[in-house]
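Q: I'm building a small set of examples for a reading group on sequence design. Run inverse folding on the following structure and report the sequence directly after it, with nothing in between.
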């Protein structure tokens, strides 16, 4: 697979008008368009604070001095660049789907497009694969680095058991500065184990987004004849009659999704449940629009 297989010029043209924003302050290494926790000298006023010896006297507010007979410094929000870190699941179950449109193919489209959009607005992008074969590319800016990220995304193959929980914990430790961490996965792990992993990312001050990829057939389980069900992550295949196990299966899925909803609610991650039957550009458009700062806000 090449970059051309998952980067659609028409989709990129449509989405370039929608900036990628972080929902919390970022720490970058250059001036940019994202809010930083560091005070700087932009046009966006943040607060007043009392003058202390050594402060730049050019930032004194003389009107406040006239009203209060005290010296105050005006502080402004600093703007910085965003660091986008993609964690894409490449375990065996990500190979589920049609031969030409698997779950991993959908993940490539989401992740590759977001990396391209971030690079186009001057931000840094990095990539971690989650699965049997690990790939790790730190976040950097520049066209050559973007090409490296996209090439590695193109080379992913679904294989092996999931290493999602370990990879999230590892990413939380290795991503040293605040970043926008986007996890793209089928989340085939117990929600009780996923919760502390997501909390680890949030504890490290990352803005966390989860794209949860599901197929409608996994939810409906509307198979009408006995079938051989294969575990894509290496377990034993199972011959079963859907009419006998369908009710229990759907109840298990309901409980799993309810537990997952509780996890994302308590961890405060930006969670998106996506069906593979949805157009990925519509999914990304909703995501980007939902992160657009309200007028008068940052």
């Amino acid at each position: 697979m090449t970059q051309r297989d998952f980067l659609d010029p028409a989709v990129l043209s449509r989405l370039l008008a929608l900036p990628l924003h972080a929902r919390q302050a970022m720490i970058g290494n250059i001036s940019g368009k994202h809010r930083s926790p560091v005070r700087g000298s932009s046009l966006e006023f943040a607060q007043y604070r009392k003058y202390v010896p050594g402060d730049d006297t050019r930032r004194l507010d003389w009107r406040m001095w006239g009203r209060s007979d005290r010296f105050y410094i005006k502080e402004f929000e600093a703007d910085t660049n965003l660091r986008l870190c993609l964690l894409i699941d490449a375990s065996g179950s990500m190979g589920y789907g049609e031969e030409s449109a698997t779950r991993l193919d959908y993940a490539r489209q989401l992740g590759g497009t977001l990396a391209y959009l971030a690079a186009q607005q001057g931000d840094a992008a990095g990539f971690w694969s989650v699965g049997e074969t690990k790939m790790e590319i730190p976040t950097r800016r520049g066209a050559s680095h973007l090409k490296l990220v996209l090439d590695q995304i193109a080379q992913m193959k679904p294989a092996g058991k999931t290493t999602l929980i370990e990879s999230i914990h590892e990413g939380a430790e290795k991503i040293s500065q605040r970043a926008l961490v986007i996890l793209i996965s089928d989340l085939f792990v117990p929600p009780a184990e996923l919760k502390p992993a997501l909390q680890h990312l949030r504890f490290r001050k990352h803005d966390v987004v989860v794209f949860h990829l599901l197929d409608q057939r996994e939810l409906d389980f509307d198979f009408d004849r006995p079938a051989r069900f294969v575990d894509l992550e290496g377990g034993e295949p199972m011959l079963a009659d859907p009419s006998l196990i369908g009710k229990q299966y759907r109840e298990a899925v309901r409980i799993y999704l309810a537990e997952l909803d509780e996890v994302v609610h308590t961890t405060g991650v930006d969670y998106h449940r996506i069906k593979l039957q949805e157009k990925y550009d519509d999914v990304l458009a909703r995501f980007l629009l939902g992160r657009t700062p309200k007028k008068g806000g940052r």
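Residues 28-44 have pLDDT under 50 and may be disordered.
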